[in-house]
TrEMBL record:
Its cofactor is pyridoxal 5'-phosphate. Its EC number is 2.6.1.11. InterPro entries: AcOrn/SuccOrn_fam, Aminotrans_3, Aminotrans_3_PPA_site, Class-III_PLP-dep_AT, PyrdxlP-dep_Trfase, PyrdxlP-dep_Trfase_major, PyrdxlP-dep_Trfase_small. One of its GO terms (molecular function) is pyridoxal phosphate binding. The keyword Lyase does not apply. It is found in: Mitochondrion. Transmembrane segments: none annotated. This is acetylornithine transaminase. It holds the Pfam family Aminotran_3. Keywords: Amino-acid biosynthesis, Aminotransferase, Arginine biosynthesis, Mitochondrion, Pyridoxal phosphate, Transferase, Transit peptide. It catalyses: N(2)-acetyl-L-ornithine + 2-oxoglutarate = N-acetyl-L-glutamate 5-semialdehyde + L-glutamate. Belongs to the class-III pyridoxal-phosphate-dependent aminotransferase family. Pathway: Amino-acid biosynthesis; L-arginine biosynthesis; N(2)-acetyl-L-ornithine from L-glutamate: step 4/4.
Amino acid sequence: MSSVFNLSNPNFPTIDHRHHCFPNVKPQFAFARSSIHLSNSRITEVRAQLTDTIPVAAKPISKDEVMKAEKEVIVGTYGRAPLVLTSGKGCKLYDIEGREYLDLTSGIAVNALGHGDPDWVKAVTDQANLLAHVSNIYYSLPQVNLAERLVASSFADRVFFSNSGTEANEAAIKFARKFQRFSHPNKTDPATEFISFSNSFHGRTIGSLALTSKEHYRTPFEPVMPGVTFLNYGDIKAAQELISSGKIAAVFVEPIQGEGGIYSATKDFLQALRVACDKSGSLLVYDEVQCGLGRTGYLWAHEAYGVTPDIMTLAKPLAGGLPIGATLVTEKVNSAINNGDHGSTFAGGPLVCAAAIAVFDKISDPRFLGSVIKKGNYLKEILEEKVGGNSHVKEIRGFGLIVGIELDVSASKLVDACRESGLLILTAGKGDVVRLVPPLIISEDELDRAVEIIYECLHVLDEKVSN
């Protein structure tokens, strides 16, 4: 089966963003189809076009054609916004029709350096010309160099690489259970259970899903991994009591909850978890998949609290848009892990690690981190000034450049209105929180423009929903 189109094809008409139109470029080949099922003769024709580059006339692909094609070939797990994005630069994105958008989603807190960062592009290009993948049967230098950076800048002694945040948390689950068995070799029933918290999100694979609090994520796939107890985020007394039972292998907690609604832990809460885990032998796991690596203005979100974990999971921004996850552990945890206990074919490959090194080296610069704190404070100030007084705004909260605007109604209409006005934002919590996670390189002028658009669109929250 052939593809409907290929936007990465150099012969595909590119968009002139200055004039919001397609230039007068004649591609060597392009094709469209009216049905998902192709005849044998058509398949032969398409293959000829692909292999022999037969010149044929073609018209630009429209947004509607892309959306229609997606429904025919992609599993329907995503409720997508009606937007086909084709390119980006800095904090700007452009759709297939050439329209410009200010991006305060950064690919769900992934594109920390924005789109098309030149150092990132060079790192990826240079490494792709050398070596992209070898598997973990062999050593590779970029993987070791990235791990050295992560260890040198954190509490950790060792790193396990994976391909996503949920995989990083799956590794943490396995390492925690193996650690308990290793630490109590003569115990017939070592601790195997876990604590997670309200408003938590740890991923969508079965183990990580079991640690995710929202029932509608878990219910369709039950039974998920057993042995998880959800406590209220910040409830010190309940956590201390359950941890002291001796049944808890590990406590999973986000220092700042992203998907859950931009809620920040307190130092007292994290300190209480640390003390209770030390007393019982449980492990403390910080999920910094969304809040880590500079998002708060600290390299690691937990640095603001001065309370370190035994394990930390990372992912989203680490490779600037390429898939990566990382599970950082102390030597105490590492001592329980043997060859064959875990693994991944793709994880920590030379290409993705080279990209991650470029990202890490920029974000870990103290001057860069200082700029994130400054811009985060500025963002909250102008939000309070422009929208804080609106009757629908209950609270503006956040840390650095992970900021939430809690509303007393659903945020979906505001998100839609902002998109129509050229601003991309996200929701969080129960759909009543506007989540702002812009690229960390965003300028104050761009923040001003974003807040102005939000302000101008607030009126949609007053419109009554039609039946």
